[in-house]
């Protein structure tokens, strides 16, 4: 962790006066010196306050002014990843209360054609997150809420920055991606964690490391990603899932994002409407601190106990690395995965 340190100095006074006066002034000097030394072990020496983003997603809808004021951008523009020609519908990002707890929901729906396919994505507007801890409690779904199952769906929690050119060395992306119906060469439910150094979209080339597990991850899961100066580590429900090496560490700040989209329309060819829902309980980022999953849970509990539903004390990135302009969002906030299975 990087902390500001102060160099504290003490003034030392040499008094050259009459003997009686010297004794008196020396005593006063000792008293003053002792008074100066107190802050060194008191308030001035305490660690700086955490630089944190926390959101409990207590909003009324995608058009709630507070959502924008708190730094979130709901996607409504075309582009990858996913089914070519599909829409990214802002209204598919919704908020609800369940058992007294606020939740964010991302819905993806289709009737088997690009024209009827709607996907969902939300991201922080500012690219200001780099090293530290990223955490979210996410509910993955194996089946649609309605209609036939089988679509090759991707449900995600990730952090990413902009690919400015093929094989851009400053690019970075770190993903939790759950495929309930397989895809990318997998035929079963599979969860991927992937760390990208960079990639080229055409012809497809990537410098990355992926760890996967074929199993159902339906239900609520605590996802934690930590990045320090030596490794990227992924945790699921308190257990280490993967660790990727320093060659994939980020060079520039990133956004924090969630999205849900379809790889293609080949998994289920029916034209009957169906929809899938991914849910998010909270998101937490603590800058430059590597927390354990238990420490993450405690930070969230403490904020909820204090009645804090939103907090953002993470400073803006240096000029040139901060906000993703609307025109850059497609490259700054979308996964480099191919739209078709790979």
Assess the beta-strand content as a share of residues. Answer: 35-45%
In CATH, the topology is named: Jelly Rolls
Let me know the number of strands. 17
How many whole angstroms does the radius of gyration measure? 25 Å
* Main β-sheet description: 9 strands, antiparallel
Low-confidence spans: 1-47, 325-333, 338-342
Characterize the overall form. globular
Secondary-structure element pattern, one letter each: HEHEEEEEEEEEEEEEEEHEH
- Assembly annotation: single chain
> How many angstroms separate the termini?
38 Å
Structural class call reads: mainly beta
**Proper CATH architecture:** Sandwich
On the 0-100 scale, what is the average pLDDT?
Answer: 85
- The domain count comes to 1
What is the level 1 CATH name? Mainly Beta
Helix count equals: 4
